[in-house]
TrEMBL record:
This is Protein DIS3 homolog. Keywords: Exonuclease, Exosome, Hydrolase, Nuclease, Nucleus, RNA-binding, rRNA processing. GO terms for cellular component: cytoplasmic exosome (RNase complex); nuclear exosome (RNase complex). The keyword rRNA processing applies. It comes from Buteo japonicus. Belongs to the RNR ribonuclease family. It comes from the Eukaryota. SUPFAM superfamilies: Nucleic acid-binding proteins, PIN domain-like. The keyword Ubl conjugation does not apply. One of its GO terms (biological process) is rRNA processing. GO terms for molecular function: 3'-5'-RNA exonuclease activity; endonuclease activity; RNA binding.
Length: 485
């Protein structure tokens, strides 16, 4: 959000994030590299006045916490030296309770993320976008346990190695929310696909998660059901109703179709991403807790807290999952963004692109900086290593009005009476060098995506519709010409 700016991310924190999650680390690096965001990194581990050594008996985590507090103190003193009418205050943000308490004892102004966001009274909408971070142990005490506990990752890895558990990709059903399959990784042909059936056996896995599965005894195997079950989300506490539905699945089974069946015992890697969908407003007046229904039926409903329910009703919104406690029928999440009214053409196009993970954001300045300067023309140096084919009559098969003409043909009779056909391809490699930001962004996009009234370019428009477009009566460079006689 534009409100969140002037943020310093310490090297100590960046290193920890990189160890925990490569995708999150990349996102933070991208934010830091965006000059409009005003996010900065400070190499406190290589600064004379902020580097600290680990003390005897001090854990690595405690040493890092202390290093963060030392850096915050130094920054506070450092900014006091700046002669400015407006005093700059340094605020330490942490959700680590112990580190916050020690910071306050040392005279550092410290907040949790929630406390800081709630202090921004001019922007109350930001509160809805807070991640739902809670103490899972306390939640278990306050509600009935629905799901089995996930086995720790270290034990899962041992079990997979010994063959007790199987690792695979969890694929939820579009038509039956109480059923899924797990495609087992590896070479084993036997039990390649395992059926998971029933709420407790699904055990909080989400579509495309990498999970560990334990096979059930053969007398507990089931077949994929032909029953269509959609989660209406009317009463999320009615677990008995869920059990009745599971019994329907078992009674509608053809015994000859029984297949290997298992249960999810742990999550190896989550595939959570921001999801598009709509708010299912609570029927309780002035309630803050509501259910979000994703556009993709394979994703479970998500419980969010928002004060904007009246505004968001009938809108396409984006929600992110924060966690899924054992006592909760649905995962907890938070509101991220309002895309616009449901049914609006631009809004639905945005949903389509986001749900299919099509990169469609404008090209960054870092990418655009690698484009050739205009006006551009072919130089004598370029011609030294190229064959001149401008005497040929070359045509495109693209329709009238097409601007991204990246291939064309010629056809002519040669001296021996044969017909020569040539295929001409625009030389994009002349403008995109391996490994630079333009090359990496193009590789990430992979292809140009065509929609009914617009297209999402793989390369910037200067290349796709101009310099790498084989337009009429202008000189263009070709990668190669294939001749068939």
């Amino acid at each position: 959000d534009p409100v969140i700016k002037n943020v310093i991310v310490l090297q100590t924190v960046l290193q920890e994030v990189r160890n925990r999650s490569a995708p999150v680390y990349k996102r933070i690096r991208d934010v830091i590299q965006n000059p409009e965001k005003h996010f900065y990194s400070f190499t406190n581990e290589h600064h004379r006045e902020t580097y600290i050594q680990q003390e005897q008996g001090e854990s690595s985590n405690d040493r890092n916490d202390r290093a963060i507090r030392v850096a915050v103190k130094w920054y506070s003193e450092h900014l006091k030296k700046i002669e400015d009418e407006e005093k700059i205050q340094v605020i330490f943000l942490t959700n680590d309770r112990t580190n916050k308490e020690k910071a306050l004892e040392e005279g550092i102004t410290a907040y949790t993320c929630e406390e800081y966001i709630k202090s921004l009274i001019a922007n109350p909408d930001l509160v809805d976008r807070l991640a739902c971070v809670s103490d899972e142990g306390k939640e278990i005490e306050s509600g009935k346990i629905i799901f089995p506990e996930h086995i720790p990752l270290s034990k899962l890895q041992q079990g997979i190695k010994s063959g007790v558990y199987l690792q695979g990709t969890y694929r939820a059903s579009r038509d039956n929310y109480l059923e899924a399959t797990v495609w087992v990784h590896g070479d084993a042909e036997e039990n390649k696909e395992i059926i998971i059936q029933g709420l407790k056996h699904l055990n909080r896995a989400v579509h495309e998660d990498i999970v560990a599965v334990e096979l059930l005894a053969k007398d507990e195997w089931v077949a994929l059901s032909s029953v269509i079950l959609q989660d209406d989300g009317q009463n999320e506490d009615d677990i008995e109703n869920e059990e009745e539905k599971e019994n329907i699945l078992k009674t509608s089974v053809n015994k000859d179709m029984l297949r290997p069946t298992g249960k999810v015992v742990g999550i190896i890697k989550r595939n959570w991403r921001p999801f598009c969908g709509m708010l299912s407003k609570s029927q309780i007046k002035e309630a803050r807790r509501h259910l979000f229904t994703p556009a993709d039926r394979r994703i479970p409903r998500i419980r969010i807290e928002t004060r904007q329910a009246d505004t968001l009703e009938g809108q396409r919104i984006i929600v992110a999952i924060d966690g899924w406690p054992r006592n909760s029928r649905y995962p907890n999440g938070h509101f991220v963004k309002n895309l616009g009214s449901a049914g609006d053409k631009e809004t639905e196009t945005e949903v389509l692109l986001l749900e299919h993970d099509v990169p469609h954001q404008p090209f960054s300045q870092g990418v655009l900086s690698f484009l050739p300067k205009m006006p551009w023309s072919i130089t004598e140096q370029d011609m030294k290593y190229r064959e001149d084919l401008r005497h040929l009559c070359v045509c495109s098969v693209d329709p009238p009005g097409c601007t991204d003409i990246d291939d064309a043909l010629h056809c002519r009779e040669v001296e021996n009476g044969n017909i020569e056909v040539g295929v001409h391809i625009a030389d994009v490699s002349h403008f995109i060098r391996p490994g630079n930001a333009l090359d990496e962004e193009s590789a990430k996009r992979g292809t140009t995506v065509y929609l009914c009234e617009k297209r999402i370019d793989m390369v910037p428009e200067l290349l796709s519709s101009n310099l790498c477009s084989l337009r009429s009566n202008v000189d263009r460079l070709l990668l190669h010409t294939l001749k068939h006689r």
